[in-house]
Amino acid sequence: MSAGTTWALIGACAVVTAALKAVGPVALGGRALPLWFTSIVALMGPALFAALVVTQVLADGKDLGVGADTAGVALAGVAAWRGASVITVVCVAAVTAAALRAVA
Amino acid sequence: MNARRDVNPRRDVNPRFKEGLRKGVPFGVAAALVGTSFGVLARDVGMPAWAGVLMSAIVFAGSAQIAALGILGAGGGLGSAIGAAALMNSRFLPMGIVIGPSLPGGPVARALQGQTVVDASWALASDGQGGFDRHVLFGSSAVQYVAWVAGTIVGVLGGSAIGDLETLGLDAVYPAFFLALLIAELRSARASRVAAAGALIALVLIPFTPPGIPVLAASLATLIGLVGREAEAA
């Protein structure tokens, strides 16, 4: 990777990310919340995190598929559901995926 | 405690920042693992070690960084890589919109505070009723920032010694991290319905849209909350 490409990538990603993070707070900061807004706020996490899990586990670009990582994440979900800490949850995912690939 | 906070906001600043630090530690450990994965990836695509660390230090957005380098590594162009990073980070639009009212100060101060938003901190800072505690946000982001950069350093320096990411199962860490965040958010039947709808929207869009769009579009699942409210009011 050339130095020019490297700098352009880092600079552009930094600027774009900062801009995306600034839009909401600049536009809506310091305002009182209308009631309908609060009901959306509390549900943004479930909507976004569910979508992130689905895309990261099942998507490879535009292709859908399952693999050892899918099984690892599923088992990690059971651990999370039973109240395991985040550290345990991610370790269950990694160890399960690694073990399945080792025997495959 | 709430009453005292109202009387003297300054006195509680440090304890809540510390609370954020404490709550951020487990997510920091996970962030370090993902950061290590990113560092290895940065090396694999031919990025100088310092550049990988610099990118983590000033971009501080795991999924976007991984998406951008994944595209470059697969032979894609610079424009596509930057576009992918932007789309992956587009979720910070809805996240920023909902946290906006909880951030005080002028526009510049609010924009700066908004930079501390990362997924786990944003979730930890939420009170589940529409409000966010910005000091918890700052504390947990600080821990994850240090862990993210440190993990990247390990990845770029460890490189070949660390071995193949998939053999170690490290590719399963990031989705498991988000799954832990998701399960913590499922506080009500309505939240579960919205999560299911968000997952479905993403699943349907994956084959037809560039990565990032399915997640952004899933934010529309929150509109179910409005329907639910009206139904309850009626």
What's the quick description here?
The complex is a heterodimer of chains A (104) and B (234). By secondary structure, chain A is mainly alpha-helical.
- N-to-C SSE string of chain B, H for helix and E for strand: HHHHHHHHHHHHH
User: Which residues of chain A sit in consecutive blocks of at least 5 with pLDDT less than 50?
Assistant: none
Shape of chain B: globular
Query: Would you count the extended β strands of chain A for me?
Result: 2
Tell me the strand percentage band of chain B.
under 5%
Q: Largest sheet of chain B, described in full? A: none
Number of helical stretches of at least 4 residues of chain B:
13
| Major beta-sheet overview of chain A | 2 strands, antiparallel
Strand content of chain A: under 5%
Mean pLDDT of chain B: 89
Overall, the morphology of chain A is: flat
**N- to C-terminal separation of chain B?**
36 Å
Topology readout:
The complex is a heterodimer of chains A (104) and B (234).
Chain A: H1 3-28, H2 35-58, E1 59-60, E2 63-64, H3 68-81, H4 86-103
Helix pairs in contact in A: 3-4
Chain B: H1 2-7, H2 13-44, H3 49-59, H4 62-73, H5 78-88, H6 92-99, H7 107-114, H8 119-125, H9 134-158, H10 173-185, H11 189-205, H12 213-218, H13 223-233
Question: What does this protein look like?
Answer:
- The complex is a heterodimer of chains A (104) and B (234).
- The mean pLDDT of chain A is 91.
- Chain A is flat.
- Chain A is mainly alpha-helical and 104 residues long.
- Chain A contains four helices and two strands, in the order ααββαα.
- Chain A has a domain of 31 residues.
- Helices cover 79% and strands 4% of the residues of chain A.
- The longest helix of chain A has 26 residues.
- In chain A, strands 1-2 form a two-stranded antiparallel ribbon.
- With 234 residues, chain B is an all-alpha fold.
- Chain B has two domains: 165 residues, no CATH class; 49 residues, no CATH class.
- Chain B has 13 helices and no strands.
- In chain B, helix 2 packs parallel to helix 9.
- Chain B is globular and about 50 Å long.
- Chains A and B meet through helix 1, helix 2, strand 2, helix 3 and helix 4 of A and helix 2, helix 3, helix 4, helix 5 and helix 6 of B.
